[in-house]
Design a protein that fits this description.
The N and C termini lie far apart (about 30 Å). Helix content is about 55%, strand content about 15%. By secondary structure, the protein is of the alpha+beta class. β2 and β3 form a beta hairpin. It has a three-stranded antiparallel β-sheet. The chain has one domain: Winged helix-like DNA-binding domain superfamily/Winged helix DNA-binding domain (Arc Repressor Mutant, subunit A, Orthogonal Bundle).
Amino acid sequence: MSEEHALALLGLLAQEDGQSLPRLAKRLGLGASELRRLLAALGHDARYDGLGLVEQRQDGERTLLWLTARGRTLCATGNRENAP
């Protein structure tokens, strides 16, 4: 997992929760399989020691990504540390 891509994904979701997989893949410049691997690490997948920062929700046929409470806390903490 690329730390740069992980931070970029968290930042995009911190700006706007509920984005679709294809939209995020395009914005991050990732293929679908690369995004899925990233989500395994950032999500709740215990097989991959997921961090529990991002969750997937179904909206009809679309899969949308949201920050978990833990993910929101992490992003808020990071923003405070980078504030002038």
